[in-house]
Amino acid sequence: MENQVSAPQNREQPKAHEEQHEHQGREGREGAVDAVVPGWRRRPARVVLAALTGCAVLGGALLLWPGGERAAGPPAPAAGAQAQAAVLAGAPAALPDLDVLIGERETYLRTHPRDARSWALLGAAYVERGRRTADAAGAFPKAERALRTSLSVRGRGNAEALEGLAVLANAREDFRAARGYAEDALRAQPKRWTAYGPLIDACTGLGDYKAAGRALDRLTALHSGPAVRARAAGVYRDRGWREDAAAALADAAAAAQGPAERAAYLERAGQLAFERGEPEAALRHFREAVRLDPDQRAAQAGQGRALAALGRTSEALSAYRVALERQPLPQYALELGELYESLGLTQAARVQYELLRERVRRDAAGGVDGSLVLGRLEAGHGDPADAVRLLRGAWERRPGIEVADALGWALHRAGQDAEALRYAVIATDQEHGGTVRSAPYAYHRGMIEKALNKQGPARRRLQEALRINPYFSPLAVPEARAALAALGEPPEVALPR
Q: How far apart are the C-alpha atoms of 252 and 265, rounded to whole Å?
């Protein structure tokens, strides 16, 4: 397994893959199998073939009776089949099931190296496992090799591989490439509903919220089900429709086909509840998600966030450590470091910030663009000038409101408040797509306006941040309250006669 790989270059069109296929012989394909599944020619042919179609219902629908217990039904399919059904439907899969699926596909491909669909499925499974374990350097290069091998075997109309490359590019935060691959997949199969999920993610990452909405409309016209409801919830949240997003996630969780899928939707519901300033409800969602799927590390980090908001700091620290142990995402390290800093544990905070930097460097070996989270770290706890440089580059590649907010804050921290306000407006102004109800975004804009002596707007924005979520950050909330106290009450103005 390679430990380093360059960031993916410009995406290739299906025609280019077809030409590559026409010039590639059996020797090249066997070399690809060696790269992804080492030693396949030296091992006995133990074929474990999981069906490439079917199992979509995961053993049939289980009815939820009024008493709360599920009715008896057919036995659940094998772990590999469960993971396969989830991956093919763009739904979350359990980590142990993914491991089984990957083992089955690797074994099968040692004796069937020309099966393009199996290569595409293996690549998609590698992406999902890399995302769940935060092992970008180990999983993403293998995923790319498998997906490109699928294209080399069957380039024309290979929507499965193109969709997999779109999902991989989104995981690497290369949203331009992801959008191109998803659009190519839909040109190959216009009614391929699963390709709309990565297209929505890519358009959102690029700040094209109207295109994301159009893609959702086409998706819902083609298909329904829990994965589609979860996609809709994300679009609703970005539009500021928090109640609609919560209802869509509740529907998705109720209709989920397995514990891992249901846990993933409950984790997203917990995120939404926390953003609404409801840490108790968020904690309930996160705990249920972990009960259903102990590998749901995002929900464990969410528990840390909610417990910190409730003042239960010892439990919060423990929850963050558990999440980081098995899914060491840079964002978790940033949150844990800021919690340590809010408690006066500056040395422990610095350890987490350095771990974040190291993690971003390691993820770069898997082609991941970590400039956003690293820019946030440098803006708040490092060199603001470095943050501005990183985030200007990120803005060129992915001009979404997340980057606009981070760049505005970095410019403020670097003393460039006039330019900072322009990006803060993009992140919070409905005209620019900033319709999401975000306490951090409102706080950043309020502090920038305060620095520019715009006292009225600053007061309104800071009050809005605390009204949306009075627990949004253990470091920023006290600063917001202190800034509001310094601004004082608005001056009394005599009423006109």
A: 7
Q: How far are the Cα atoms of 198, 222, 230, 237, 252 from residue 245, in angstroms, in the given order?
A: 19, 20, 8, 6, 11
Q: What is the dotted CATH code of the domain comprising 375-487?
A: 1.25.40.10
Residue 344 region by backbone torsions, left for phi larger than 0, else alpha for psi between -120 and 50, else beta: left
Per-residue pLDDT tens over the stretch 191-233: 999 999 999 999 999 999 999 999 999 999 999 999 999 999 9
DSSP 63: P
11-55+79-191 maps to CATH 1.25.40.10? yes
Closest CA to 207 of 396, 67, 342: 396
What's the predicted TM-score (pTM) here? 0.84
Q: Which CATH superfamily is domain 224-322 in?
A: Tetratricopeptide repeat domain (1.25.40.10)
The CA distances from residue 210 to 207, 216, 224, 432, in Å, are 9, 10, 21, 11
DSSP 91: -
Summarize pLDDT for 358-410 with one digit per residue, the tens: 999 999 999 999 999 999 999 999 999 999 999 999 999 999 999 999 999 99
